[in-house]
């Protein structure tokens, strides 16, 4: 916070409702530690692959991806750089999303100084709390930086169970937009395949 | 039984006079609608951005409605509040938006406003803080009562919503 930082690693986890389960893929993990390049506009590039398959009986509790970023501060301590969360997109296709990150703030200036000196910054006990609605009213945070995510989504059997995730405009796109393809198989529950890549823009 | 899922987040707010903001939100729906799962109201965290002019909340919304009709399609009511460095909260603005009626992914910018008081009240707001508030915040989305108000424009709240509908085809509803 007092100096610009140039290294970061992210931890990711999926938060899903109780009707959901993960059939395949890692449900949490850690990226590599990335350092900024020497460009004029330096970015932190992760190029980190994510693949996951979810299965559910109801769209309630749609999966969310929760990210927590950590890095070294000037004294060599591992401190939290930001938390962020986003819902996995619901429509099949390729989606690019930008997720802003935020850190909890210390209660007072003195606490802020102590945190900087000792390297013990305020953090969430469980990062998954940012994906829930309750209990956030009293949190004070500072937002800094963002992460760029690219999602490729495939869904299965949503239409055969009566769900619509796109309006007619979306299903019959204009002639120049040819990239989407829909894989609809006839049987089974409600699985969804997801593959994602991440990169981080300047923190 | 027709069902509607609203899944998404209140991303943040921008264009306000100061940037230490939080948002109280509530989703209203007509009498034919019933909430099956999810929280209908909540309050985001207080965010003060370090570099950007936008305060980011990323507050998740996940609601599951069952409905018998299209009237009273859900609306989200927003109140943007400001918290100063002493921890005092004051209301900045009101806003509302209909949840989009088409299934799919939507990025929305909800414009907001605050009620304008008399000259004395405006001076008080400038110097002491605090602001005029509506006695009944639900009026924000009623078409018949708003003619009585004078309002001042404030910033925008950014929403990212996904809507999934189910079984409307059986009743002939075309999206």
From TrEMBL, chain A:
This is B9 domain-containing protein 1. The keyword Ligase does not apply. GO terms for cellular component: MKS complex. Belongs to the B9D family. GO terms for biological process: cilium assembly. PROSITE patterns: C2_B9 (PS51381). Keywords: Cell projection, Cilium biogenesis/degradation, Cytoplasm, Cytoskeleton. It is found in: Cytoplasm, Cytoskeleton, Cilium basal body.
From TrEMBL, chain B:
It is found in: Cytoplasm, Cytoskeleton, Cilium basal body. This is B9 domain-containing protein 2. Coiled coil: none annotated. Belongs to the B9D family. It comes from Didymodactylos carnosus. The keyword Transport does not apply. GO terms for biological process: cilium assembly. InterPro entries: C2_B9-type_dom (IPR010796). It comes from the Eukaryota. Pfam families: B9-C2. Keywords: Cell projection, Cilium biogenesis/degradation, Cytoplasm, Cytoskeleton. The keyword Nucleotide-binding does not apply. GO terms for cellular component: MKS complex.
């Amino acid at each position: 916070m007092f100096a610009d930082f140039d290294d970061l690693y992210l931890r990711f986890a999926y938060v899903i409702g109780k009707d959901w389960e993960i059939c395949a893929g890692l449900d949490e993990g850690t990226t590599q530690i990335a350092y900024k390049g020497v460009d004029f506009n330096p970015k932190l590039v992760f190029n980190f692959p994510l693949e996951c398959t979810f299965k559910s009986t109801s769209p309630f509790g749609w999966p969310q991806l929760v990210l927590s970023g950590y890095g070294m501060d000037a004294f060599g301590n591992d401190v939290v750089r930001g938390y962020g969360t986003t819902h996995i997109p619901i429509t099949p296709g390729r989606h690019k999303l930008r997720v802003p990150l935020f850190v909890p703030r210390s209660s007072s200036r003195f606490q802020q100084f102590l945190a900087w000196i000792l390297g013990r910054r305020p953090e969430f006990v469980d990062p998954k709390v940012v994906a829930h609605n309750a209990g956030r009213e009293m949190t004070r945070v500072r937002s800094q930086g963002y992460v760029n995510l690219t999602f490729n989504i495939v869904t299965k059997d949503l239409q055969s169970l009566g769900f619509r995730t796109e309006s007619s405009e979306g299903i019959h796109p204009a002639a120049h937009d040819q990239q989407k393809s829909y894989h609809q198989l006839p049987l089974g529950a409600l699985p969804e395949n997801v593959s994602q890549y991440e990169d981080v823009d300047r923190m | 039984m027709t069902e509607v899922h609203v899944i998404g987040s209140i991303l943040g707010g921008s264009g306000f006079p100061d940037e230490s903001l939080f948002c109280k939100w509530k989703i209203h729906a007509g009498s034919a609608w019933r909430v099956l799962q999810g929280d209908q109201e909540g309050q985001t965290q207080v965010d003060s951005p370090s570099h950007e002019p936008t305060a980011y909340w990323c507050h998740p919304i996940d609601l599951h409605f069952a409905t018998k009709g299209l009237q009273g399609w859900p609306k989200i009511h927003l109140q943007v509040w400001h918290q100063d460095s002493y921890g005092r909260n004051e209301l900045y603005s009101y806003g509302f938006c209909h949840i989009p009626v088409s299934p799919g992914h939507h990025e929305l910018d909800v414009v907001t406003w605050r009620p304008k008081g008399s000259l004395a009240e405006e001076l008080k707001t400038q110097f002491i803080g605090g602001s005029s508030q509506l006695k009944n915040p639900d009026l924000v989305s009623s078409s018949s009562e708003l003619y009585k108000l004078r309002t001042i424009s404030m910033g925008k709240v950014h929403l990212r919503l996904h809507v999934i509908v189910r079984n409307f085809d059986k009743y002939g509803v075309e999206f």
